[in-house]
What does this fold into?
Amino acid sequence: MHTSLPDFQMPNDEQVHLAAEGFRLLADPTRIKILWALLQGESSVACLAELVGAAPTAVSQHLAKLRLAGLVRGRREGTFVHYSAADTHVRALLAEALFHADHTDRNLPDHGMAETAHTHLPHPPARSAGQHELAAPATGG
It folds into this structure.
């Protein structure tokens, strides 16, 4: 069956491994909150800890893992490190995961293949009749 698809190509083993590792690291609510916050702009460990309702040491450990996976970048300024989401791929990945969760949570219909990815996160357009939007994840513990 797949041989009849002219452009079908399986990803290589390294791509599959890296994608699986990225998904594994995103399988944690605190890490999703951290990434959401970083999509809004650069932030320090202390600020992220307050936003996500976790201890700074825990946030620092999460950031180290996210950085090793290439999902987060750090910029050193003196004794402080300012973190940010690595690139637009992280934005798209998190946006789709959160939109999928929103659709599942509210039992919304699938958009089908005609609609492209939700790339407008984290600032969705104003809500109008018949549209949905994703609220920012709740902060706090």
